[in-house]
Automatic annotation (TrEMBL), chain A:
Annotated localization: Cytoplasm
Biological role: May play a role in chaperone-mediated protein folding.
Protein name: p53 and DNA damage-regulated protein 1
Entry's family note: Belongs to the prefoldin subunit beta family.
Quaternary structure (record): Component of the PAQosome complex which is responsible for the biogenesis of several protein complexes and which consists of R2TP complex members RUVBL1, RUVBL2, RPAP3 and PIH1D1, URI complex members PFDN2, PFDN6, PDRG1, UXT and URI1 as well as ASDURF, POLR2E and DNAAF10/WDR92.
Taxonomic source organism: Monopterus albus
InterPro entries: PDRG1, PFD_beta-like, Prefoldin
Coiled-coil zones: 32-93
GO molecular function: unfolded protein binding
Entry keyword set: Chaperone, Coiled coil, Cytoplasm
UniProtKB/TrEMBL annotation, chain B:
Biological process according to GO: axonemal dynein complex assembly; DNA recombination; DNA repair; epithelial cilium movement involved in extracellular fluid movement; regulation of heart growth
Reactions it catalyzes: ATP + H2O = ADP + phosphate + H(+)
Role summary: Proposed core component of the chromatin remodeling Ino80 complex which exhibits DNA- and nucleosome-activated ATPase activity and catalyzes ATP-dependent nucleosome sliding.
Protein name, entry field: RuvB-like helicase
InterPro entries tied to this protein: AAA+_ATPase, P-loop_NTPase, RuvB-like, RuvB-like_C, RuvBL1/2_DNA/RNA_bd_dom, TIP49_P-loop
Source domain of life: Eukaryota
GO molecular function, one term: ATP hydrolysis activity
Locations listed in the record: Dynein axonemal particle; Nucleus
Pfam family for this entry, one: TIP49_C
Length: 132, 459
């Protein structure tokens, strides 16, 4: 293999790796959101069904364990917070990864990407203008 | 990406009329900023196009703001074409405002107000809106009404994306807004997490059936991908002038539509400047200095020039591009002579690009491009004749003849414009030189010829 082919190959590998990285992160977000939604369903079920004194069956991996209801709720809530945080972190990281991919592919950077968002009040004021 | 695209509804494609510079698509430069002889509707003027290209790069990088460029050259040498080329290659994101020098003389507002509105139209502010939304296809919607008819309704909403599916418990409020939006199974909806606002994007493709009786406005969309709970980020670009207008609405909200905004108080402008600067410091906004193009700049008077001088110093200032076809002439409103009719102190701040007359080959090329633009077929001889006319009279006159000759040709049911057609329109329509010749010959038979005034001061 001559030098040029080698370089092209290296470049393509780099692009593919970056793209793969983006896809994995996306999938990870989806998986975490899946989990988050299941937890939310569980919390709803705990709120409505059954009295507070009863114990509930919680599935840990392959095993069902009877667990006090309040403890379970606490546990799931903690899990939710953790999930929210993780998803946020992944999203933040995803931006950098997409930017990197665009950069090595020679595509223009997405504009206004790293602005921090306006507050809701400010958006409301601007909305008047945007919804002409 | 967590961001989603809200499908844009495009109505009928706009039918553009053919204008004098509608064939210009850009500056016609390659990646190394070297001008190509013929490209993107541009022909010749290599040096000035290259110069414009350098300025364009600087504008794009945001390096120059508050600078001014003057495009100077004889009439019909492509000054406006270069400005249009710059506008086209800046892309849709950079604001470009064009106005003619005489436009600012209006009774409605002062000259400086008109100028400062134009300045502020040419500065864009980029802001971002971020919302958490839940987006998915409705699989099932189930609402239980209490038997008594009163009391709280409860319900369940099942949403799915291509990857996942989940059930939401619904409260009274959500049920109300769902039934108000007439949401049913098979709809693709988004729910704004912060406000709880529901919007229907359309029906899912999987629910499309041949026999379904549908309204014409039913839109079919793909089932969304990825996670249900997404973050949507939208970046808007607005001009400073637009923000000014909303904040100074004395005549009610109609002001934006009629375009008749009257004068905007300088306090309002200052407040907005302060707010925008605050946003910029907080990382909430980016300022995009755009381009303000003033054609026929010699029509401005001394007041305007001194205003420009001052306005260019401000930190929120766009790139100013001016064009003129005057040589050394009187500055409007004074008795002083100055190059291009622009005061020396302003001239000193300008980068000047000169355009030169087109050669015969270039004229030929431009006529060819215009023929394509106006959908006129030209025979080889007719093309040569037209080029000669363009060289001897003016390029504009030759271009006028294209469409008129095209009409004559169509009248005699020909497909290609022949030399005869050109001859015919050439005899029908006078060019500037022949017209003045005619005037001189038949001066006596026109009205008011007896007032032999001293020769007009044309300097």
């Amino acid at each position: 293999m001559d030098a040029v082919t080698q370089r092209v190959l290296e470049y393509l590998t780099e692009v593919e790796e970056a793209a793969e990285d983006v896809l994995t992160t996306k999938q990870q977000i989806v998986d975490l959101d899946k989990k988050r939604n299941r937890n939310r369903e569980a919390l709803n079920a705990l709120k409505t069904a059954m009295s507070d004194s009863e114990k509930v069956k919680v599935c840990f991996g392959t095993m069902f364990i009877r667990f006090p209801k309040s403890k379970t709720r606490e546990m799931i809530q903690k899990d939710q917070e953790q999930l929210d945080k993780e998803i946020n972190d992944l999203r933040k990281g995803l931006k950098a990864k997409v930017n990197r991919l665009n950069e090595i592919q020679g595509r223009p950077e997405v504009r206004g990407y790293n602005l921090s968002p306006l507050s809701t009040d400010e958006i409301k004021a601007i909305d008047n203008l945007l919804k002409r | 990406m967590a961001t989603t695209k809200v499908p844009e509804v495009r109505d009928i494609t706009r039918i553009e009329r053919i204008g004098a510079h509608s064939h210009i698509r850009g500056l016609g430069l390659d990646d190394a900023l070297e001008p190509r002889q013929v490209s993107q509707g541009m022909v010749g003027q290599l040096a000035s196009r290259r110069a414009a290209g350098v300025i364009l790069e600087m504008i794009k990088d945001g390096h120059i703001a508050g600078r001014a460029v003057l495009i100077a050259g004889q009439p019909g040498t492509g000054k406006t074409a270069i400005a249009m080329g710059i506008a086209q290659s800046l892309g849709p994101d950079t604001p470009f405002t064009a106005l003619a020098g005489s436009e600012i003389f209006s009774l409605e507002m002062s000259k400086t107000e008109a100028l400062s509105q134009a300045f502020r139209k040419a500065i864009g502010v980029r802001i971002k809106e971020e919302t958490e939304i839940i987006e998915g296809e409705v699989v099932e919607i189930q609402i239980d009404r209490p038997a008594t008819g009163t009391g709280a309704k409860v319900g369940k909403l099942t949403l799915k994306t291509t990857e996942m599916e989940t059930i939401y418990d619904l409260g009274n409020k959500m049920i109300d807004s769902l039934s108000k939006e007439k949401v049913q199974a098979g709809d693709i909806i988004t729910i704004d997490k912060a406000t709880g606002k529901i919007s229907k994007l359309g029906r899912s493709f999987t629910r499309a059936r041949d026999y379904d009786a549908m309204g014409a406005q039913t839109q079919f969309v793909q089932c969304p991908e990825g996670e249900l709970q997404k973050r949507k980020e939208v970046v808007h670009t607005v001009s400073l002038h637009e923000i000014d207008v909303i904040n100074s609405r004395t005549q009610g909200f109609l002001a934006l539509f009629s375009g008749d905004t009257g004068e905007i108080k300088s306090e309002v402008r200052e407040q907005i400047n302060a707010k925008v600067c605050e946003w910029r410091e907080e990382g909430k906004a980016e300022i995009i200095p755009g381009v303000l193009f003033i054609d026929e700049v010699h029509m401005l008077d001394m007041e305007c020039f001194s205003f420009l001088n001052r306005a260019l110093e401000s930190d929120l200032s766009p790139v100013l591009i001016m064009a003129t076809n005057r040589g050394i002439t009187r500055i409007r409103g004074t008795n002083y002579q100055s190059p291009h009719g622009i005061p020396i102190d302003l001239l000193d701040r300008l980068l000047i690009i000169a355009t030169s007359p087109y050669t015969e080959k270039e004229t030929r090329q431009i006529i060819k491009i215009r023929c394509e633009e106006e959908d006129v077929e030209l025979s080889e001889e007719a093309h040569t004749v037209l080029t000669r006319i363009g060289m001897e009279t003016s390029l504009r006159y030759a271009i006028q003849l294209i469409s008129t000759a095209g009409l004559v040709c169509r009248k005699r049911k020909g497909t290609e414009v022949q030399v005869e057609d050109i001859k015919r329109v050439y005899s029908l329509f006078l060019d500037e030189a022949r017209s003045s010749q005619y005037m001189k010959e038949y001066q006596d038979s026109f009205l008011f010829n007896e007032t032999q005034a001293p020769p007009m001061d044309t300097s």
